[in-house]
Amino acid sequence: xxxxxxxxxxxxxxxxxxxxxxxxxxxxxxxxxxxxxxxxxxxxxxxxxxxxxxxxxxxxxxxxxxxxxxxxxxxxxxxxxxxxxxxxxxxxxxxxxxxxxxxxxxxxxxxxxxxxxxxxxxxxxxxxxxxxxxxxxxxxxxxxxxxxxxxxxxxxxxxxxxxxxxxxxxxxxxxxxxxxxxxxxxxxxxxxxxxxxxx
Length: 199
Fold this sequence. Notes:
Strands 1, 2, 3, 4 and 5 form a 5-stranded antiparallel sheet that branches. The model has no long low-confidence stretch (mean pLDDT about 90). The two termini are about 30 Å apart. The protein has helices at about 5-10, 25-35, 55-60, 65-70, 85-90, 110-130, 140-150, 180-185, 185-190; strands at about 45-50, 80-85, 135-140, 160, 165. The chain has 9 helices and 5 strands, in the order ααβααβααβαββαα.
């Protein structure tokens, strides 16, 4: 599929069939995440992939809103939890040649460990489209993160930034609400050229 078509087709899909994914497809989705950029090539991320039905069943109690509002999300055969590792960045930039020695988080203009892990998640979303699949990124509420960590043995230094589902779209998807198309902002509304306010 042409890249422009992948971008055009990318949507957050919340309704899936339970058709399994081949191991090769799962590996492509996960491996492509590693092609994301990362500050200083820190690669401060990890990905918890849940493919076994029993593991996915252990995951969904931590996302009660999604289960209640869109129960067919649970049919997705792949759930991935992207994890950001802040210390990998702080230690990388304290290395010789990087100029910082104190590992101070305040030096960072933005939390790149979250940004880079988010970009890795986006590559998984785009790979899913390229494979003819649907995918969705969604949050894990703060009050559920500690319990999620405990359930899956996620080390304290890794922070879940959300989760992704990947699978085959259900054939009887409900139509998207009209307000979605109405709310999509045009390029001229968000791109400023040369100076703020110049479109």
